[in-house]
UniProtKB/TrEMBL annotation:
Superkingdom of this protein's organism: Eukaryota
UniProt record, GO biological process: centriole replication; de novo centriole assembly involved in multi-ciliated epithelial cell differentiation
Compartments reported by the entry: Cytoplasm
Coiled coil regions in record: 57-126
Main location: cytoplasm
Keyword Cytoplasm: yes
Name of the protein in question: DEUP1 protein
Keywords from the UniProt entry: Coiled coil, Cytoplasm
GO cellular component, one term: deuterosome
C-alpha cells in the first residue's frame, strides 16, 4: 500500500513539474506574443505592405491557437492532478481507518485474552482448592473404611465367640 502511495506521489510530482513547465511556456509565449504585437505595430508604422501584415497576423493567430491548446492542456493537467490528489486522499483515509480498526481489534483481543487469563487463574485456584478438599475427603473415607474394617473384624470375632459360646451352652 505504501508503494501505491509513493507511486501516486511521484505521479503527482511529475504532473506538477509538467504543469510548471507549461506555465513557463505560456509565459514565454505570452511574452513572445507581446513582442510580436510590438513588432507588428512597428511593421505597420514602418512598412505599409499588406503581405507582411497578413504574415504577422497569421503568426499571431497561430500563437493564439497554440496558447489556447496549451491552456486546454493545462486545464486537463489540473483536472488530472485534482483526481490524483483526491484518490490519494481517499486511499490515505482508508488506510487510517483500517489502522484504527486494527488497533481497536487488537485492543479488544488483548482485553479478551486478559479476561481469559483471569478466568484460567480462577479455575486453577478452584481446582487446587477442590483437590485439597478431595484429598481431605479421601483421608476421612480411608479412616472411616479402616474403622469399618476394624468394626467388621470385631463383629466377626464377637459373632464367632458368640457362636462358640452357644455351642458350649
Amino acid at each position: 500500500m505504501e508503494a501505491d502511495f509513493s507511486e501516486m506521489r511521484n505521479e503527482l510530482q511529475s504532473r506538477d513539474a509538467l504543469w510548471r513547465r507549461i506555465q513557463v511556456e505560456c509565459q514565454q509565449l505570452h511574452t513572445e506574443l507581446l513582442k510580436i504585437k510590438e513588432y507588428k505595430d512597428m511593421q505597420e508604422i514602418q512598412i505599409k505592405h499588406q503581405s507582411s501584415c497578413r504574415q504577422i497576423t497569421e503568426q499571431l493567430e497561430n500563437k493564439n491557437a497554440e496558447l489556447l491548446l496549451l491552456a486546454q492542456s493545462q486545464e486537463h493537467q489540473r483536472e488530472e492532478l485534482n483526481k490524483i490528489r483526491n484518490h490519494l486522499y481517499r486511499e490515505e483515509q482508508a488506510h487510517r481507518s483500517e489502522q484504527e480498526r486494527m488497533k481497536t481489534e487488537i485492543s479488544d483481543l488483548t482485553e479478551e485474552l486478559h479476561q481469559k487469563e483471569i478466568t484460567i487463574a480462577t479455575i486453577m485456584e478452584k481446582a487446587s482448592l477442590l483437590e485439597r478438599q478431595l484429598k481431605m475427603e479421601l483421608e476421612i473415607k480411608d479412616k472411616l473404611l479402616a474403622k469399618q474394617q476394624l468394626l467388621d473384624f470385631r463383629y466377626k470375632v464377637i459373632k464367632s465367640e458368640n457362636t462358640h459360646l452357644k455351642e458350649m451352652v
